Amino acid sequence: MERMESMEPISAHYTTAYPEIQPDYGSTETTESQAKTSSPPIYDEELVHKTILVGDSGVGKTSLLVQFDQGKFIPGSFSATVGIGFTNKVVPVDNVKIKLQIWDTAGQERFRSVTHAYYRDAHALLLLYDITSKSSFDNIRAWLTEIHEYAQSDVVIMLLGNKADMSSGRAIRRDQGERLAREYSVPFMETSAKTGVNVQLAFTAVAKELKHRAVQHPNKPKFQIHEYIEAQREKSGCCSYF
Ligand SMILES: Nc1nc2c(ncn2[C@@H]2O[C@H](COP(=O)(O)OP(=O)(O)OP(=O)(O)O)[C@@H](O)[C@H]2O)c(=O)[nH]1
pLDDT of 203-230, one tens digit each? Predict the structure, then answer.
């Protein structure tokens, strides 16, 4: 297996040095005492949620992250990601700051054993396919098998059909993405790293889910990521969920 130290940084604003962050969602003791007093749970803004972008090479993982981080799309020749690196983003949710540490992985097969090692302590995985690439969609099942093998069972998973702006080259209908997402009970939406459609929504929905998991109050209804996405879909008329 390749050693992480030997890998090149993905870009200037990423770093390959990975400080071992062990997020703490709050001890059981705290949750129990909060339940007894019914006091509202307090979100710890120091929490860092490890979020990983995965999917075949070329589906647009780096582009999605650049669009989310910098609000821009850099067209031109495709340069495959080497290794793995992260960028930190703070997402405001309900007046608190959710810290996402977003890892961009290399989709190429030769890096697969390296990226597996990162799944173990991931809190969220954004799994991408390219709506113009049937093979990237067909490979989603294999990705989900790997995720279930290497990631924690309670990891937040979201399926994204990227390059939604390329309607003329579409190979996968939206309802095919919806059906696959329904089969695996994961939220789904189509995104475009080029136009920015649903890019903020994808990360915000994940941040909201992670926040609610961290402060889940026994007397309060569970946050429904599907309903949240549906509400947003009504506004943008663009995405689906399950
Ligand atoms: N039209 C369009 N092109 C996109 C979109 N997202 C990415 N691309 C293009 O697709 C190509 C691959 O994008 P990347 O972001 O490098 O793909 P990746 O998934 O990070 O690839 P690996 O690093 O090899 O895993 C690039 O030429 C991008 O410009 C999109 O939403 N729309």
Answer: 999 999 999 888 876 666 677 787 788 7
pTM, entire model = 0.82
Among 179, 180, 125, 164, residue whose Cα is nearest residue 148: 125
ipTM above 0.95, yes or no: yes
61 lines ligand 1 (CB under 6 A): yes
| Residues 104, 55 contacting (CB under 8 angstroms) | no
Q: How far apart are the CA of 63 and the centre of ligand 1, in A?
A: 5
Instruction: Name all contacts of 27-34 with Cβ < 8 Å and 24+ positions apart.
Output: 31/216, 31/218, 34/217
Q: Is 212 in the pocket of ligand 1 (CB under 6 A)?
A: no
Task: Answer for the pair 189, 127: CB distance below 8 angstroms, yes or no.
Answer: no
**Ranges of H-type helices in 10-139:** 28-37, 61-70, 112-119, 134-138
Structure tokens given for 188:
């789904």
Using the mean position of ligand 1's atoms as its centre, give its distance from the Cα of residue 60 in Å. 3
How far is residue 234's CA from residue 232's CA, in Å, rounded to a whole number? 5
Q: Is the dihedral of CA 24, 30, 35, 39 positive or negative?
A: negative
Domain at 43-239: CATH code: 3.40.50.300
Please give the C-alpha separations between residue 27 and each of 24, 32, 98, 100, 153, in angstroms, as whole numbers. Answer: 8, 9, 19, 20, 19
